[in-house]
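Q: Structure tokens for this one, please.
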Amino acid sequence: MENQRPRKNLKLESALVIALTKRLGPKDDTLLHGIVGFEFGGPPDLRLFRQTPDIPGVTYVTSDLLWCEQQPPNSIGRYELAISLPEESPWAEHILFKLAHASLEQTFDVGHTLDISEWVEPDCLIKGLFVTKLLSFRLAGLPCCVLYFVGVTRAELDYALAHGAGKVAIQLKNAGAFPVTKLVRESVV
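A: Here is the predicted structure, written as tokens:
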């Protein structure tokens, strides 16, 4: 039963939104929805949250992956993806598009780091992502979570690979570079 995936329906989608709003506060009325659906290679639906007390800025959360048969579960179960930026940006939409499609071929989990240098412009200072958990919940009796991605510089990514992601997470928090991804900032290592 743990490896089954619930079928998307209005009741389950509503349960997802309730879990998200408990953690992130009220969602925007806007739902970013592609013309081509995620299951056909388009972008995932994105919900935006702007009123989260401990996360200043805009938090983007996918809302298609829990129902996608191709995505393998991680150690927690089925998962969606999230990232926060100080303000709305097409960068977040692009990164979540890439992450969502990559999650169909590889499993992302808490503590992972990712090199995204091929996904971003050469002058972008953020070259990697650190993965943590935003929240976990049960949906249709199955364990689910929302993975939270925080942008890191090349030096921070290399440091995490050499010393562990936990150590770079502490330094990011101490420097005010966590949990919101700031696209222009100095490296903390």
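A few notes: The chain has one domain: 10-174. The chain has four helices and seven strands.
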